[in-house]
Amino acid sequence: MKFAILAFTILVTQAVAQDYNVQSNGFRLILKSLTNDTLNDHALGACHQGAAQEGLCLMNDTLATPARPYTTFYHNTTSHNHGNLKNANDTAGVLNWSLNYNNGAGSVFSAMALHYSQTPCLMDMIFAPHNSSYQMVYFAEGSSSMYIAVGLNDTGSTPASPYHQSRSLVWNMDFIMLPQDPTCSWVGVQRVWV
């Protein structure tokens, strides 16, 4: 019975992954802020969050810095859309990143999914290999701004952690555009081709 459940899970995961089989060219996720100029033109990169799990963290890399494996992402869309192009705008797709292992001897694609953080209305963006749950993202025509069609509230203050801290991207699930937590800055995320 356990084998049958495992086999079914693998089959469903592979079937879902095949649905999003049109991979874009590599791109970087670049920040644009109306309220904090020090964030502008900085790249987001995959940063370690747990066992084979990565978050999206602010890097010292800027547009002037060459793309690196941890700052290069892909947008997989489905071939079931009629006329779907490889680098389509305003098309639902899976944001993914290539996780290297064994000192670069192998790699596996990790899909991004939203996970609730300690505050009820903020979502952490976590990449995990063979992720059967993932969040659809879109990139707007013209501006290449990333967007997700969801909404909630981010009231409250983020608790301090006694452990290592990183500045990372969380998704505001509220209809209010600006963060209510004074330690947060509103940013837009744009796709910039590698």
Task: Compose a concise summary of this entry.
9% of the residues lie in helices and 39% in strands.
Structural features, described:
By secondary structure, the chain is mostly beta strands. It has a single domain, classed as Trefoil (Acidic Fibroblast Growth Factor, subunit A) (Trefoil), CATH 2.80.10. The chain is 9% helix and 39% strand. It contains one helix and twelve strands; from the N terminus they run αββββββββββββ. Strands 1, 5, 6, 7, 8, 9, 10 and 11 form an eight-stranded antiparallel β-sheet that branches. The chain is globular. Mean pLDDT is 76; it is low at 1-17 and 156-166. Residues 1-17 form the signal peptide. Keywords: Signal.
Number of strands: 12
Overall structural domain count: 1
- For this structure, the quaternary state is single chain
| Terminal CA distance | 46 Å
Total count of helical runs of at least 4 residues: 1
- Describe the global form: globular
Query: What is the second-level CATH architecture?
Result: Trefoil
Encode the helix/strand succession as letters.
Answer: HEEEEEEEEEEEE
Helix % is under 10%
Strand content: 35-45%
For the residues shown, what is the average pLDDT? 76
> How is the main sheet built?
8 strands, antiparallel
Radius of gyration: 17 Å
Backbone structural class? mainly beta
What are the low-pLDDT stretches, counting only 5+ consecutive residues below 50?
Answer: 1-17, 156-166
What is the CATH topology descriptor?
Answer: Trefoil (Acidic Fibroblast Growth Factor, subunit A)
Q: For the record, what CATH class applies?
A: Mainly Beta
